[in-house]
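Example 3.2
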Amino acid sequence: MTTSNGKVVLVTGASSGIGRATALRLAREGHQLVVGARREDRLAELAATAPGVDVRRLDVTDREDVAAFVDGAVADHGRVDVLVNNAGVMPLSRLDSLHVDEWDRMIDVNVRGLLHGIAAALPHFQRQGGGHFVTVASIGAHQVVPTSAVYSGTKYAAWAITEGLRQECDPSIRVTTVSPGVVESELADTITEAGAQEAMRTYRANTIPPDSIAAAISYAISQPPEVDVNELIIRPARQR
């Protein structure tokens, strides 16, 4: 059961990168998009680019804010079919740099933000007899490099939480983890440690556009109800 325009899809972290690309692609495909992010100026630009997209300010670290985001979408559209938990931050640094505030920020956004989304949407999915969670994790969930210890830890946690959710949910609720490799984005802009910044310049020599990840998300949610795409890893062909 969907709206006449397709599924009702919620996307967090939609002001740039993968979130924005996902919102634009799914809107073009006829879905009803409700998207959230902290940067209201970016949301206004997105709404101007895709007038059918419903934009709302959202802080995923605030549990009540996330609940209001999901509940508001249900009130406006009658249901929610897909939640794309995409919001994330990546201020990489060595552990001995002791950037503890940045560690806390990654835990708050990448882990607690994901849990807040699950807590807000799961009761609706259970009540309506179906739904689809999509977690945007990272290749960092599968490998650790110097400076990525905390970030990779949060993304492994995102992978583990999502896999546990898949196993616990009724089959009517589908669960997908998407783990991107190096994607054109602003994620690296939050890195403050000089060594990590330099390493990123080399690491990000080969990237793919965020729409490549949006296409993977579109593929996962477009499958028939009996097909559950559990995990996708998408890297640049030159990334090893």
